[in-house]
Every structure is written in structure tokens, then in C-alpha cells.
Design brief:
The chain is α/β, with parallel strands linked by helices. It contains 9 helices and 7 strands. The protein has 2 domains: 113 residues, NAD(P)-binding Rossmann-like Domain (Rossmann fold, 3-Layer(aba) Sandwich), CATH 3.40.50.720; 69 residues.
Length: 219
């Protein structure tokens, strides 16, 4: 296995995106959703990037990339069609020990980006180690069909239950059979069908009093 799988926390981290076209715009949207502080450097920028800059959500520098742009950056993403520029960005990042991804160029990256299935805080990633983006896309579509929005709700519910149990000084090891019992039931089907009364009955049976679906989802 070439790549070390990791989920990277970039909240409030400085991130540079070089390139303001369609690919760069998609990268920026994902970075912002993860809480990054994004700077875009590009001679040309999409309308969406201009709007984000006007709203103060990103910093947009409409000019050519300079090596100094990497100063203070946690990671950089190259999203240009200029092979020479992409390699310059990669080389600059290597010298500064900065995380670097060049779109569609795994050979000049020190990390690659997986395909993502996103359901609230549930994140399923698929990687072919850069060998076949087409296969990663096919698998992502299959997983999107298999894991619908109800799985995001399920995760929120499990998280709220765990938090409440921990507040009651339960030992974490004691939680395992409770969660297994919930997950081995038809809880996901109840969520999918919005059967709140059945969910509440199940929670009462497994966890006892004080576990109400709507209350937990608001906590």
C-alpha cells in the first residue's frame, strides 16, 4: 500500500489554491466546507470565486503564481493546465515541507484526494491510489446509492446517544453492546421511513427512559 490513509483537519488552516477555473472552484468549495482559510491565486477566476471573494469568504489574487505565495500555507492545491507551473508548485512545496496536491497529477503530489461520499458527518472515501479515477467514480456512485441521507441522520443520532451516555458517567466499553443492539435492529429503516414512534420505542427498550429521537436530534 503506497498511501497512508488519513482524515486531515484543515479547520482554520491556511490553504492555497493555484488556478481559478472549474477544477479550482470545486476544490475551493470543498475546502471551505471543511473550514479552511482559502487563498486563490490565478490570472483568471470563475464567477463563483469572484462572488466568494466579494463576500469575504476567500482571498482572491488575480495574478501569476509566485513561490512566496506558499509562505505560511498548511497545504497547496495546484489546479492549472500548465504542466510547468504545476511542477514548480510541487517543487516549491517539497522545499517547504508543505502538503501538496496537483489535480490529476499523482506523480507530483505528496498526497492525493479520494472520491467522497458525504452524508453529514459520515464521510466514505474511495481511493485507487491514483491508478483509475474512473473506477473510483464508479464505486462512489454505487456507494451513494447504497448509503442515502438516512445514514447521516443515523450518525447524528448515534453521536447524541453516545454523548448523553458519557455525561451519565457510563464506561465507554459498556456502550458497545447497546450500540450493537441498535445497529442490528431495523433502526436505519425506521429513520428512512420517518417512523419516529417506532424509533422512540426501540430507544426505550435498549436504553431506558430519557432517550427521545427528536430531543436527541436537537442536542
Amino acid at each position: 500500500m503506497r498511501y497512508y490513509p488519513v482524515q486531515l483537519d484543515i479547520n482554520n488552516r491556511n490553504v492555497l489554491v493555484v488556478g481559478g477555473g472549474g477544477v479550482g472552484t470545486r476544490k475551493v468549495r470543498t475546502l471551505l466546507a471543511c473550514g479552511a482559510r482559502v487563498t486563490v491565486v490565478s490570472l483568471e477566476a470563475s464567477r463563483q470565486l469572484r462572488d466568494l471573494a466579494t463576500a469575504g469568504e476567500i482571498v482572491l489574487e488575480e495574478r501569476s503564481y509566485q513561490s512566496d505565495d506558499l509562505s505560511g500555507m498548511f497545504l497547496v492545491i495546484g489546479a492549472t493546465n500548465d504542466e510547468k507551473l504545476n511542477r514548480q508548485i510541487s517543487g516549491d512545496a517539497d522545499r517547504l515541507n508543505t502538503l501538496c496536491n496537483i489535480a490529476d497529477r499523482p506523480e507530483v503530489c505528496n498526497f492525493i484526494l479520494p472520491s467522497i461520499v458525504h452524508r453529514d458527518d459520515l464521510v466514505i472515501t474511495i481511493s485507487t491510489s491514483g491508478k483509475s479515477p474512473a473506477l473510483a467514480k464508479k464505486l462512489r456512485k454505487a456507494l451513494e446509492n447504497q448509503f442515502g441521507e438516512e445514514y447521516g441522520t443515523l450518525l447524528r443520532l448515534m453521536g447524541a446517544i453516545r454523548k448523553k451516555l458519557l455525561r451519565q458517567a457510563h464506561e465507554p466499553e459498556a456502550h458497545k453492546p447497546l450500540f450493537e443492539q441498535l445497529l442490528n435492529s431495523d433502526l436505519i429503516g425506521m429513520i428512512q421511513e420517518s417512523e419516529v414512534e417506532k424509533i422512540d420505542s426501540l430507544l426505550l427498550e435498549v436504553l431506558g427512559d430519557g432517550y427521545i429521537f427528536n430531543d436527541l436530534m436537537r442536542s
